[in-house]
Amino acid sequence: MHRITSLTGIRACAATVVALAWLVVPASPTHATSVAARFAADPVATEAALVLARETIDAWVLRHERLAIPDDLPPLLNERAAVFVSAMLGDAPRCCMGTLYPTRVTVAEQISEAALAAAGMDLRFPHITPGELSRLRVIVSVLEPPEPIDSAEGLDPAREGLAVRGAKGWGVVLPRETPRAELIEPWARIRAGATPDERVDYYRVRAFRIVEPKRDM
Known about the structure:
24% of the residues lie in helices and 23% in strands. It has helices at 35-39, 43-63, 107-120, 181-192, and strands at 3-4, 21-23, 83-89, 92-98, 136-143, 147-149, 161-165, 170-173, 201-205, 207-211. It is globular, with a radius of gyration of 16 Å.
């Protein structure tokens, strides 16, 4: 769930990670050199991004501690891009916060801010508890620049998400958030506080998505 209230300050959508898995949402040809697209060719940076998000969430939930960003991160995490950090508990969303446009100098800072917000400031959900950490699946979505489009028709939910801007704010549905294309626009409108017939601006959203694997319990 991703409710957005401003263009630049957009806030919505356990233990040490032992096994990591990443899922690539392919970049568009026009954004082939974007930061998000370059993650697909950099598994070291991909793993570091997910570990940073996970350890930031764990540190906040367990100790209410803001984790310092390491100095030895892969170079790609020193680039600039927007990020969402979310977590699933089973098949249900547990938290999601982030920005549609970058608000920090580096991807690492963006991940840190989004992970902290997801862990403790997503008011749509109760605060994450220490007992939930080992059952959460953390997801990091590194976004390409949003692309203005005329309508939401024809979006592929496996590759594309949608941002809408209405009179009350923004709403975002990330790629792969739903497999049903017909739900993308209604969900985005609800999150933007827009009625079904209200005039809104549409933006295609693409992302590189990094997902923790399910754990055997």
